[in-house]
Amino acid sequence: MKARSTTLFILIFCFANAFCQVTERCATVHEIAGKKRGNVRFQSKVERLGLEERMVINIPVVVHVVWSKAEENISTEQIQSQLKVLNEDFNAGNVQISSVPVIFQALVADVGFQFCLASKDPNGQATNGIVRIQTANTIGIGGTTAIHHTSQGGSDAWDPSKYLNIWVSKFAGNLGGVGSFPGEGPEDEQGVEVNYKQFGTIGTATNPPYNLGRTCTHEIGHYFNLEHVWGPNANSCCTEDDGVADTPVSCEDYLDECPSGNTFSCFAPDMWMNFMNYTNDACMAMFSKGQKERMIAALNDFRAGLLESDGCQSVATNEPIFEPSLKVYGNPVDNQLVFEIKSSMTGKWDVKLVNLLGQPIYTRTALSNTPVILDCAAYGSGVCFLVAKQNQTELVRKLVLN
What we know:
The chain is α/β, with parallel strands linked by helices.
């Protein structure tokens, strides 16, 4: 464990200076703590933890990639890798669950939030849920109000009542992310910001210790009204808590640490593996059942529009929807193979001929509903298989070559 005086100095310095130059996991300002103390109505809503169970709660996400240099314009695959992490973390499906100490295993929560990249935009049009904006800001626009506004070099939010807006960009300094608490700040700035070097698990986000997508998990926790496990104030040290009964009071943030077993900083073992701590990504593992209740309450009380959003629903088209199929014209095949992938799915398919040993003897790409002619004279005679694959869809036809 780090020396307490060093930890407190770093945290106090960081909160006195809005953007500290040491590595800091989260820059979410604890302005909400003052609101809890000074606004009785707000406090009563936060503490009303009525739990409404649902099988799955769909959360439509729009990712705003605000970039200056090309490397900041992260790939669609990197964005999808972050969504995968969120769906594992919020549904107790991550591999780190097995490392949770025995004392906390019964408290691990399956929150039940399913995050999707929006397939329908606020105007009802089809979308991939990704907005890309090139900015003139080369220093770093993350952690500033400008990132939320196109007129200031950022990207305007989609309807914050119906979408979880996530902004990904370069940050000035070494900050990892920022999350907005419910009811705090302008409505059009509600959402989450994440450093492009800590978003997802591939591409620009492969450098430990923040390479497993947990910065975004942490900031979304704030978005659903979770405090850090030590409470709203960094220097409270065992005198405040996070308002959740089953997360022990803590005086340690575990920044840049990866503990094991039971460690103490106050009166009971610390829940160092909680997503709302500052532990390294590889050691974060869980939300507690009390945190689940608090997030469900925040969803019902402050972000209920997400429950009614159709952002995860596909846009209806006039084109017929049918199961894809692989049509072969003439089988057995005499010299020339003619085939067509019949599908309402657009985009390229990976196509290959495979022999009986499973070895590819020919590969190419093909488009849906476009006939392809292939000269098979060089492949001899016998049985082989034609395989076409797109994402998780695979089509196979057995062929006989004469």
